[in-house]
Design a protein that fits this description.
- Helix content is 26%, strand content 24%.
- The protein has a 6-stranded mixed beta sheet with strand order 5-4-3-2-1-10. The chain has a 4-stranded mixed beta sheet with strand order 6-7-8-9, covered by helices on one side.
- Strand 8, helix 4 and strand 9 form a beta-alpha-beta unit.
- The chain is globular and about 60 Å long.
Amino acid sequence: MFTRTWLWGAAAAVLAVAVPAQGLDREALPGRQVRVAAIAIGFGGDHDAKLKLAVEHLHAAGKRGVDVACLPEEFAGTGAEPIPGPTTEAVAPLAKQYGMYVICPIREQAGDQQYNTAVLIDRQGRIAGYYRKVFVFWGEGLHCSREGVKAFDTDFGRIAILTCFDLNYAELWQECDAQNVDIVFWPSAYGGGSPLNAYAILHHYYVVPVGRGNLIDVTGKTIEDTEKPMPGQVIATLDLDRTFIHFDFNGEKVDRLLKEHQDEVVLEQKFDMESWWLLRAVKPGVRVRDLCRQYQIEPLREYRHRSRREINQARQEGRRI
């Protein structure tokens, strides 16, 4: 089941990496790599036909070493079923066969209530958790989740899932940031567009939309370096170790880190107006996050979270900052 232990930050990058069928050799790569697949085969339709298409896509993703594949919102129709049920039972063996996580959105029958639910299946084909849509769209005829945003710890990082109409409610995306997720998967019946890019740069996590498959980098840009093994499927390799650091209080420490590890870490981008650096590891086995701890550098996400807590505390106590 999912837990809510904190990880060190978010972040990521896209790298061109040769990938064997069994997946990434992470120890031979810099940073913290993960392969993701958005399987944008559309909402609804005939259950059996769409499930067959989904299975074909999952075989294609698995053969390309994908760590986590995400299917669209209610991809196999709107007939309600329990968890586990026919759709999750059909998908689970593929997750186990290829040793990959699969996000399998269904219409869930939970007692006498129905939800728009995304089920997370782990690498062993077991149900690891689920997310029920918080903001149900008008006319869906479904119950609204009372459970809110969930974060799921995987063996590569921390993820969250939001669904379709959830796009319009910034508090859900803020909660993903508060729970320190690395990637937000967004199964949907439509493309979403620019708000997804805005959330990615604002919170510095990847967004994997599964409406059109327009994968989004932590810098807010749509990822160009992708693989498309089948129509509707988009695969990218992401580096979850890429780290944003604020200029505040960190200049000398960042300069020293880069000087002393010049063959291991690079300044990927400097954001002058935002006052951010973006660092990336380039040597196998090196992680920026480990070096930040060593050099007592606080990543941007941690800086924001700590500042929020401490400034709010000062406000409550009537203290000056």
